[in-house]
Amino acid sequence: MINTFSFANTPQLYFGTGKISTLPAISKTFGSKILLITGANSFQSAAYSSTLLDQLNANECVIEHCTIDKEPTPFMIDDAVNKFASFNCDVVVALGGGSALDAGKAISAMLPVKDSVKHYLEGVGTKIHPGVKIPFIAIPTTSGTGSEATKNAVLSETGENGYKKSLRHNNFVPNVAILDPSLTLSCPQTRTAASGMDAFTQLLESYLSTTANPITDALAIEGLKRIAASLLNAYHDGTNVNARSDMTMAAYLSGITLANAGLGLVHGFASSVGGYYEIPHGVICSSMMAAANKITVQKLRSEKSNIEALEKYATVGRLFSDQQNKSNEYYIDSLLDLISNWTDEMNIPKLSRGGVTLNDVEKIVKSTDNKNNPVKLNNDEIEEVLKMTL
């Protein structure tokens, strides 16, 4: 019997190499005044940027440009809203990595409200957002967060009382997502690794989630197939368009599955660690993936309370293995080994390089959630995971 579930809407999607050329016509359907959100340097240095701007200008578009130089904070969103409110844009276009997309999503949501975004963050503010926004177009240039498919914008304030929380509403799903794999060809190797492992984590965690459903399972498996075929290829040869295409699609699918099935322990750590330290989201997730899955599998095997989760681990293990007719236990162990080996091969940094120490373990564990993990881990087990990544 299938448990009851709901499924969120997704953007109007345009996928394929060269699809960035459709932006002028698509944006014009909303109006001629564009607020363009990009990273601090990546857009200006990209080979396609001047051509795209020329195409937009030729289409009689008026553009204001806002740059985001790190993972967005409430102050950055408020500052952008105040700065560009008088422009009265018709559409917000975010082109970049997850930070630019989350910032663009939040700015489009806050421009009509004219209030500090902090008041509307889950677990931080006390106000409920009315769901109004400026139309929003998301164009990812990395393959990781899946923000181009989700209804939440993640904002953070780092420090002793830091947090990493979402501005969320069903209406905040982008109106349009343009997925052009050619835009990811210049993505640096380190970012390819961290973002790619983030997409891997999101697909695996949503597949194993206690709130997964048949649709998210099917999409997660499709995404995981593409991760298995292409993540290492994209890492070792960034010019491989086929690998980049697979990773672009995998990241998009991970956004859909996380929005509808939730995530597990790794992303619980991403929230807590990301609130205390300025460590990129993808780095946190990729560095913790091996340990979190190892301890989760250990407890699943010990308790034998969720056989379906172990079967799912085995199913994923088969996707990543070239061996046939082996036992479930073999495929589970081979998956755990592969995650660990990929972490080493792609030089994923330990959390200690971002400033996390043993003295921080207790406070991080206390604020780390694992509500959708396939088995509930206690604080000692969560602590063990964290210590394994230092």
Structure description:
With 390 residues, the chain is an alpha/beta fold. Helices cover 49% and strands 12% of the residues. The protein is built from 14 helices and eight strands. It has a six-stranded parallel beta sheet with strand order 1-8-5-4-2-3. Strand 4, helix 5 and strand 5 (136-140) form a beta-alpha-beta unit. Helix 6 (189-208) runs antiparallel to helix 7 (214-236), helix 6 (189-208) packs parallel to helix 10 (281-303) and helix 10 crosses helix 14 (379-388). The longest helix has 23 residues, at 214-236. It is globular and about 60 Å long. The N and C termini lie far apart (42 Å). The mean pLDDT is 96.
Question: What key attributes describe this structure?
Answer:
6-stranded parallel β-sheet; alpha/beta; single chain; two-stranded antiparallel ribbon; 390 residues; 49% helix; globular
What would a concise description of this structure say?
This protein has 390 residues and is α/β, with parallel strands linked by helices.
| Whole-angstrom Rg | 20 Å
Shape summary: globular
- Sheet-strand content, in percent, reads 5-15%
Average pLDDT reading: 96
Please give the structural blueprint.
Layout: E1 12-15, H1 23-28, E2 33-39, H2 42-45, H3 49-58, E3 62-68, H4 74-84, E4 91-96, H5 98-110, E5 136-140, E6 152-157, E7 163-168, E8 176-179, H6 189-208, H7 214-236, H8 241-261, H9 265-276, H10 281-303, H11 307-319, H12 328-345, H13 361-366, H14 379-388
Parallel strand pairs: 1-8, 2-3, 2-4, 4-5, 5-8
Antiparallel strand pairs: 6-7
Helix pairs in contact: 4-5, 6-7, 6-8, 6-10, 7-8, 9-10, 10-12, 10-14, 11-12
